[in-house]
Amino acid sequence: MRRTTTTDVLVVGAGPAGLATALTALRHGARVLVVERRTGTSTVPRATGVSTRTMELFRFWGVDLAVRAGGVDCDPRVAVTHTLAAAPDELVPFTYPSIRESLAVSPAYPAVCAQDHIEPVLAAEIRRLGGEIRFGTTLTGLDTAPDGVRAALGPAGAVRARYVVGADGPRSAVRAAVGIGWEHLGSLGEFVNVLFRPDLGALLGRRLPGIVFVKHPDAECVLVPVGAGRWTATRRWDPVRGESAADYTPARWTALLRTATGISGLEPEFLASGAFTMAADVATTVRAGPAFVVGDAAHRMTPMGGIGMNTAIHDGHELGWRLAWAVRGIAGEALVDSYAAERGPLGRALAARSLLEERRPDDGLPTDLGRTYRSPVIADDGAAPARGHVRTARPGERAPHVWVRRHGRRVSVLDLFEDRMTVLTGPAGAGWTGATRGRGHVPLQVLVAGRDLPDPRGALRTAYRLGPDSAVLVRPDGVVAWRHDGRCADPGPALARAVDAALGRRVPEAARVA
């Protein structure tokens, strides 16, 4: 008799999106089971760019040092050159910001680290927190009902869960099972790639750029270092000219790489190869009842701009806490549904952006940190979204980073938001503290600038525009949900309405920005 497992959240897929969903849900108190048809984590590097916001999340989760330990040592620039050995014709910065630029607005900074190093780090942390990951387990059936799902896992049995999350890639079985459509946005062509050793930097005796566009007419390709002495080469092939992906045999790759690198005696060791269409597609919705899709199952992106893996991880972080709080009875249905309202349009916009080969002014920090969400659980201040990445603690924005002292330690104020709702108030805002009484099991804290968080130079008050009586409500994902400026005659009911609205328990007109 096959066994049936019961859990709160079933995650199908153990890539970055699925692992981020599981890890966040676990940290917020849900029971989680991850199933993955592969026999283990990724064996190829796939994505390598880790954005500022993603490194913030890794820092919150306590895995940032383990991730950086597998980082790629490279010159953080993009080179355009005739061959790798030749002096580059052009060197330009990554679309990612410099360390200095990131640390001006964040406690973290970007990294270059391959996905096949990141996945085991996240999987180990999930297991440390008590989550279960079953590799070599395939979803073979899925039935949904308003109160949950029943998933068939073939010989492995079945699972009953309150929610199911499809993190199983662009051919998502979860998405297909619940009837979510798939829309093609466009394509940049057909490509082949190969993963190989040895380390080209070691052969040439110098630190090489993180992305190299080789423009040799006989060997045009993109070379990328991916760690552990490995490199990838990616090249467009054209069926119109009679080419086939099958033409790229080891012998042809060897000849091509010798020309592209300028190392005539190069003897590459080939580790993996493949062909793919560089395309962008999106799900027509990211929720269907108790089922959700994240990462490539929700929005397939091209590698342009290095935003695919980062967006997938952000999806998981944004969804995981919502599901956990709903399971625990803290949040209402509107908060769960706000994942679709907030992440759906953003995923579509980023997928479309990945089809553009030229740089855009909003690449980098503006895309990574500068989003503004709109949904029924975020109070509407009536203003248009701000431009750029500098945030001013308006509803829908990522809360600004400021270094503060808490219990004698120097921390980012962002560190104080991760596991609860937080109200930041101005120096005269002690009245908001009493307003938290009677909030029951809602994780909620009030921090008064100058009292709980010393602010001798006014950096916190400036960043959050805290007047003496101001109050700013920040969600566990670091998004501002509501603010009140000026005196409040009765802070208890005002805060109760704001918290209930932010939790999706009700969305009254009174919860609008005061």
From TrEMBL:
InterPro entries: FAD-bd (IPR002938), FAD/NAD-bd_sf (IPR036188), RIFMO-like (IPR050641). Residues 7-353 form the FAD-binding domain. SUPFAM superfamilies: FAD/NAD(P)-binding domain (SSF51905). The keyword Protein biosynthesis does not apply. It comes from the Bacteria. Signal peptide: none annotated. Keywords: FAD, Flavoprotein. Coiled coil: none annotated. Pfam families: FAD_binding_3 (PF01494), Rng_hyd_C (PF21274). Its cofactor is FAD. The keyword Iron does not apply. PANTHER family: BINDING MONOOXYGENASE, PUTATIVE (JCVI)-RELATED, TRK SYSTEM POTASSIUM UPTAKE PROTEIN. This is FAD-dependent oxidoreductase. It comes from Pseudonocardia zijingensis.
